[in-house]
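All the exercises in this workshop are built on plain-text protein records. A record pairs a protein's sequence with a compact description of its fold. Read left to right, the backbone structure tokens trace the chain's path through space. Once this layout is familiar, the rest of the handout is easier to follow. Here is such a record, shown just as it appears in the course material:
>
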Amino acid sequence: MAEAMAQGLLSKKLLNSKAITVGEPRQERRMELEQKHGINVTANNREAAGSGKILVLSVKPQDLDGVLADLKGVLQPEQMVMSIVAGARVSTISKGLGHTAIVRVMPNTPAQIGEGMSVWTATPSVKKAQLDQARTILQALGTELYVNNEKFLDMATAVSGTGPTYVFLVMEAMIDAAVHLGFPRHMAYQLVTETMRGSITYAMKSGKHPAELRNLVTSPGGTSAAALYQLEKGGLRTVLSKAILAAYERSKFLGEEKGSVVDTNTAEHT
């Protein structure tokens, strides 16, 4: 995800490649990033953290404590920290770094192609100019939505952060069903992906509620009605609702292990 952020900024010419420094422990990965993007690389996180105005934390949750301990005391007051670490609370990052200007982001995987949905919040210590910088970075990944309370990040984790997982599963199921009917797999893939892409684009451009769009294509006694009957009989809505709730509860649990939810609402941010 951090590479997607760098790639988005570079492709939109918002930053020069030499304005980006990456701290990466693996030598082969450092070489790959340097050759691919022309950015600065180092094995020393403290060196990377001290090289710019914005520090992006993009590590595995289980590695976060060690990274925070390594970086504690390194940051300057005017620097902003942007965390995309899953489940890591603002309070955990602030305490671990001894720093207060924190932006927490919940991105999703389509950000890697500039089509992401990022939900984010910031502490009161983040200045207006820094908020604008954070917004610019996230817009390079796709669409961004600022929220004034950290509790919405757990909700976003369950809906938009984990959302691609639900979509991919439905895609897989539809492709397998098409193959079962007799389509070659490559044709089934094209039929399903183009249908999903077109349906979503149509829904967004129409501005209509999904229920209204569904009714428009459901004729009495028709194929859609027969299919919808089976989907409702199978409890599709209930299963999806339970899945999103389970993801939400898991996100809360992971965060509560390390820190508390912070109300980040301020007059300056709104």
